[in-house]
Amino acid sequence: MSDSSRLRTLVDFARPFTLIAPALGFASAAATAIGAHPREAWSWGLVVPPVIGSIMAAVLNVASNGLNQIFDAEIDRINKPKRPIPSGRLSIGGAWAVTMASFAVALVLAWFVAPGGRHECFWMVAAAAVITTLYSVPPFRTKRLGIWANVTIAIPRGVLLKVAGWSSVKTAMGLEPWFLGAIFGLFLLGATTTKDFADMDGDRRGGCRTLPIQFGVTRAAWMISPSFVLPFLLIPAGAWTGVLTGNFWLLQALGAFMTVYGLYVCYLMLRRPDDLAVEENHVSWAHMYRMMFVAQIGFALAYLL
Q1: CA distance linking residue 55 with residue 116, whole number of Å
Q2: What is the pLDDT of residue 182?
Q3: What is the CA radius of gyration of the chain?
Q4: pLDDT tens sequence across 174-199
């Protein structure tokens, strides 16, 4: 295999599109912390920990992707045969090497995200790494346990990601960062299932009892719909109660826009739910990522402007 082919294989294994969301999520959380009361005075030193942390979040996601692909190798032979492991382009040993190196690099980077000497980010990342392991690795492998699969995605990629990003600027010992994390965690609690509908055949053979397998496509679609709407109602509620200290009117606008956007995605899912299990990447899956991006950018603007 040529050097260019090896590089392409490693890039495919890392799944670069999925790295944008965690990096942006970390950076957005840092921006909210900068603008949160009391607002931080600007300095170049203020942005160094968030930049390191954003790179760390992407690298940690490489590790998470790798772990999932290693233990999903047989399932991917059915669902995603072109991926590096099932296609034979990357050995299991090579996959382990990339995965463990990514975990190590992420933890080292997290240790250096320590404003004021606080290592809160490191402990958040360590917890996220453990939960990610529980998701993929037997005997726990919560991926096969229905709603517990969603929980073990929502906590590290929703709640802990936001709190870790906040901790790169301010201490996480307060209500506001956890409130922010809860919004994104509740969103991912349901929205993460959008990737499961088209994978039902392989997941069923691999013993993974995802929500669509347990409850059927239509019922699962209705079950996850509230996660596209209700979390974003917490944004205006948080602004009204003073828990969220960004720009009041921008937060109201963000909450309204995201709620309407979520209702639209629910409409796309529920008008023809059987399509969810037919299309490899149903439009709702793409909108799930777009909603994440819009919400992350919206929060950053609401706190910085």
Answers
A1: 20
A2: 98
A3: 19
A4: 999 999 999 999 999 999 988 888 77
